Structures are given as structure tokens and as C-alpha cells.
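Consider the following assembly input.
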Amino acid sequence: MSGDFHGVESSLKKHLPESDFEEVRRILYGKPCEELEVSECAKKLAETGDFDVKIFKMDQGKSECLRRDRNVRVAVIQNAVTTSTSEPIDVQRDALHTRITEIMEVASETGVNVVCFQEAWTMPFAFCTREKHPWCEFAESAETGATTKLCKELAKKHNCVIVSPILERDENDGDTLWNTAVVIGNHGNYVGKSRKNHIPRVGDFNESTYYMEGEDGHPVFDTEFGKIAINICYGRHHPLNWMGYALNGAEIIFNPSATVGALSEPMWGIEGRNAAIANSVFTANINRIGTEHFPNEFTSASGGKAHTDFGHFYGSSYIASPDASRTPGLSRNKDGILVAEVNLNLCRQIRDSWCLRMTARLPVYRDLLIEASKPGFKKQMVKDNGEDQF
Amino acid sequence: MSGDFHGVESSLKKHLPESDFEEVRRILYGKPCEELEVSECAKKLAETGDFDVKIFKMDQGKSECLRRDRNVRVAVIQNAVTTSTSEPIDVQRDALHTRITEIMEVASETGVNVVCFQEAWTMPFAFCTREKHPWCEFAESAETGATTKLCKELAKKHNCVIVSPILERDENDGDTLWNTAVVIGNHGNYVGKSRKNHIPRVGDFNESTYYMEGEDGHPVFDTEFGKIAINICYGRHHPLNWMGYALNGAEIIFNPSATVGALSEPMWGIEGRNAAIANSVFTANINRIGTEHFPNEFTSASGGKAHTDFGHFYGSSYIASPDASRTPGLSRNKDGILVAEVNLNLCRQIRDSWCLRMTARLPVYRDLLIEASKPGFKKQMVKDNGEDQF
């Protein structure tokens, strides 16, 4: 990969002639997003912190007579780990706390109302190692842990809802570990948590070694700035998981992730957008940045040699609209915050226009899943026997 | 739109520098497809007929010890209507029969095993008009109609499974109309039919005026060249519809469509691929070509003036693999046939690697749909009251 290559959109913009660019952009990205000016103050802070800041205004839909526009600034933050994975756990975690605190200053400058950090944001994505020690030490209480305390301060200070995906330790439940997103209200209050429903067993994603599938359903959080839900990482490959949050009333579904290039990059631009289209919701898709090296060798069950890194986390975080448009992505190589101004009324407007919920025929699929969940499920299959089958 | 613009891929190929092209292509399209040589004979026939012919070899996965490779050539055909919509119904239909017969000669030359035509291929997409006469006359028996007779001849002659999406009239069932795909085996035999499950009410797609939702479930047809199913047009917006066919064992799901640029073009590259990824199947996505004008004015419920055309059907037919790669699309403006050589064993290999079926947790969604299908369904929603909610 060329060091000059920061992402699809910047390459298209640089190289395509204007008329082609507009057609390619329209087909690949839908209605245009207006890029808004970043304040001098925010720019300066971001430069100092060496991260990108981008603000887009997505199509706002129509103004309605009976409902006021519900304009919300939704943000996603992507970042690399900031210290060596050999440092003590608290040093690693505190450095990430500092990093996010710094980026949140810019979030505040840009008027963000709801922000989501990346999956397991307080730690390197150490699940590739299959080692329990020391990585399990990153797990903390969703309600009272150090990270939740920090997020409560940040949320209150910046009057902003924060979604904070962490490795959770539930002391009340036999010290169980979970992969959990904590939701903090804009008054600095703990609103609730949502656990990862689908756990990967693919490549270096040995997460089933560390925690189990969430059993808390598909909770939606009705905040001051919209009804939000969190589909964590691998759940994005499961259309029914997105559907679950949408059926419960979500308007914005966050997908905090950690995923690497060789495995998933061609899927990244597909799944979050498909979910936005199919469910008439906004989706906000976040991936971490960089290559993480670990102290001890591990293998990847790929026939390759033992090694100490997980591959490149390609960032490229973006926000998708129910109208099938999306923002450009953040860089593949650099920390950043992406802010989208959206009108949440668009969800219902698209629902009225496309009727995807009305035509969903849920009872058909209820009945199918009742059958398909039974042992010995008999498929509806017609064997071609080479003769007319009237 | 520039007249020079034939589609995203040709524009990228023309304008991006080689290193950027390879990265953009990889991120947008996944593993590369090898473009195979078209025989001189096929080329000549296609030139005479003024349509494109493209053959791609998609990544073939791994060879297995216990199963032979199952290499199949899957094809999609896109075309414009060939006569004025003012001609008598039989003239219009017969002209399309002739056109497809011509294109099938090339299909045969390229060694096609399974081919699908576009939605309601024997007629213009007249549902925009809301007129019943004369368009209902296009409806014919799935089992014994003129179109099925033709397809049986073509299937036998070319030793090829044919999926033929038509407007069906079911005389046995009160002269009911349906939007139906007929499956003809490679021995020229009638195998079965599959009816459209989700009917649009959006823009000019007034299809609910003409026919109802299919009640025959999600049938899969186990043919000599793979287990195939058909998700007709608007069904592609419904992830559960794709899932239904996959649960019943489909390896290739066709999506014969008729859709126009202003409405759906940014979704076109998303939905078929998401379905391939989420279900570990191949999907083959077909859209018609050109602008169809109708004798009488109609309105589009968009605040605009009455008019006589449906907008541009943008073609761009393509095939997507369970490994998240896809072929380039056919042109936005020209008839064509696209052939992909695939190894059907890839479906299970991807299932083994990604475990999306194993991690699907169907009983969770069974239970959710049981609740969500009840009147008065109570959403799982947490209200942020501004205070800690432990």
C-alpha cells in the first residue's frame, strides 16, 4: 500500500475529472454531504494533537408542519493506542483516557451532541493473543469503573451524550467479562449499558475466549439528543442484530469496531450502509487506527509463522443516512473525529417514502425462525429431477 | 450525466493512477476478478446484436480433499425493451423473446450453466401508469405460457438452467396476477416458481396496484448447477428475505430487478453485496436498461408535472461473492450479459471461516419477532431521565 494513500474518497477527489467525480460520488455515496468549516480553535487543537477533524452536514430531509426539525450533531472518534502494550495496564489505560479527553475538547468545539468511541477503547485489542494475563485487568465496572467516571465528567462538561465501549467486569455476576457499551447522559449520568450480542471466531478475533454473547436483548436509549443503540463490532455482519435495535425504536445505531484490512475492508463500506437503508436509521461506524504489537508471539491459524502484531486497523470511520447517502470516511492512517449534522426526522420521512417497515412482513419471518430454530428443520427445497414438475 | 460515463469501474480504471486504482478497487470490490477472454464467435454475435459480453473468474476458494470443486458459470442478462410501448402486446413480447433468444446464443458460447433474466422481462415496466389495460395482458401462465415454452426450448438447446421472471396469471386461483420467477431445468423441464414476497409502494413503483405479496415462502431449487433461489426486486431491501432463501439452502440468490437512478442507484452496489456477505452465498443482481415511454401521461406523486416516462433504468448488473468481492458491473446504458465463473464450494468455506450462520442466534430473533409481531409490542427502551440509573 502506498504511503500516500489515505482513503478512497481523497483518491477519487484527487484524480477524477470533475464530471466523472460527481457521477462516481453520487453512485457510491448518494446525496452530497456539505463539508462545514472547522473553527480556528478546533483546527489548532487538532493540529497540536495530530488528529483530523471533519464536520459534514448530511441532507436534512424536509421540514414538517407538526414536528420541529431535530438537528443533532453525531460524532465518531477513531484513534490508535498511545503507549507500548508492554507498559503497565494503568499506564496504557490512563494514556488513552488522556488522548480521548484531548479529542473531546475538539468535539465540544464542534458542538457535538452524541459521540461514540471505538470498541474496547481503553486498551489494545489484545484478544489476538489468547492470553488472559494481563489483558483481563483492563476489564472494569460499567457502572462505577474509572472509565465510566471519566466519561461522566466529560459528558457533563461538554453537555454531550457519550457511548463508551469497554471491556466490562461484572462483579455481581461471578466476575464475568463482557464486551459492553456504556451510555452516559449529557448531564453526566449513567443511563445504561448494552452488551455485544454476536462474538467472532474468525482469524485473530479470538473473542469467544474472553467473553460470552450478551443476553440483554437490543436496548435503545432515549436520550436528549435522539434514540440511540449500539451494535458492537461483529454484530454488524448480522442484519438481524441491526433490525433488533431498529424494532426497539433506535434512530442512530453506533457500530464501535476493531477490524483489520486483510479481513474486512471490502465489507466496511457495505454493512453499515445496508443497515441504515434497511432499517431507515442513521448508523455511525467506528474502527480503530494503526498496528498493535504485543509482547509475546501468537499464531493466526492461517498456516503462517508466529508473529506479534494484529495487522492494520484501517480507521475509515463514517456515518450513513437512511437515505442511502454517507459521509466520506476518516483516514485509514490517522486519528480523527468525524461529526455529522443530521436531522433525525429523516428516519420517519424515509420510512414513509420507502415503506420498508410496513412491507417487512414480520410474521412471515417469525414463522420461518420458529421452524428454522427447531432441530431437524426441513428446508423448503425443490429437487430438479429433469422432468416437468407441475 | 455525461454521455461518456458508462459506470464507476470504467471511470476509475481510466483516471486513477495504477497504485491508487489497485487500492481503491480492493477496498470497493474486494479480491480481484480475472476478466476472461471472450471467444471470437461470441464477440461477433454480441457486436452484431449491439450488446456487451463480459466473463469474469471470481476467486475460487480452496480445493478440498473430500469435495470436488463445483465450478459453475452464472450469468445475468440486462436489456432495454425493443419496441414502442404503443405496439400491440404480442408484438412487444415477441420482440423481447427474439432479443433474449439472440443473447442466449452468446450465453451458450460462453458456457453459461445458470442464467437469470431481468424482472418482468417480457414487458415494459408499465406499473408506473397504474393502468390495468393493456398491461395486464402481459400476464401469462408460469407453467404453460408462451414465455415458459420459449425458455424450455432455450434451456434444452443450451443445456442451461434458466430463471425467467414474468408477470404471472394464475387461472387456477381466480385469475390472480403475481410477480413470479419461473425456473426451467437444463433438460428443458419446468422445475418450479417463486413469487415476489415484498411489494413496493414507492415513487412510480405502484406494484401493489397489480399483484399481492407471494405466499409461497422462500423456495430453493436444487438444480444440476447449484441450489438457486430468487429474491425479486424490492425484496433486496429486506435482509430477512435474503435470509429466508439462505436458511433454505440457497447457494446463489438472483435478484432480478427494475430500478431507476434517481431512486436507488446509491443502494444498488450495497444491498446485493451485503446479502452475499451476511448469508455466505453468491448473489446475482440484474437491472434493466434505458428509459421507457408510455402512451398516456401519469404523475409520480412527487409534486412534479405529469409525464410519460419512468426515468433511467441504469443496468449495472453484477455478481457478488460470499467473500465480499464482486464483479465489475455491466454498463449503465447498454444491453449486456455478464458471466461469472464461481466455485460453489466457497459458500461453505466462507461459512467455516466467518461462522456467520453459527453465530446467528436464530432463537433470539425468533423470540424478538414473536413479540414484535404482536399488536401493542412494547419496545425495549431506556429513558434517559438525567440521573444515574443503576
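Chain A touches chain B through 99 residues (CB under 8 Å). Ask yourself how this observation constrains the way the partners meet.
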